[in-house]
Amino acid sequence: MSSAQPVIKSKQTVKEVNGISTQVVCTEFSNYIFVVLTQYGKMGTLISVTPDSRSNDISTPSFSTKVLLGKDEPLTHVCAKNLATFVSQEAGNRPVLLGLALKDSSIDSIKQMKEIVKICQVW
User: Would the keyword tRNA processing turn up in this protein's UniProt record (predicted)?
Assistant: First the structure.
């Protein structure tokens, strides 16, 4: 008798964000959530977003960001926290691996991208 292997849940979509075609792929692994947001058709900068276990206030957890591959710029960390914090919180405070390749990282675009990520929710 063979046992069924766990299936990796993944969902993707393509939407326009301020006139730019934006692809979103969300994949759930047992230990983290993997989200790719691209306007270039490639993975781009890879950022790890993890809940900070040192945070004493459960109602407002803090998150740490670390660029694993790509440009390590302040705006990258700001975008990553804005896009991945709610993902982690809704997925039981699991870490998020985020791939970003954005032409437009304005506040309005980031807000629209968060809504697209919610559509692709797999957790």
Answer: no
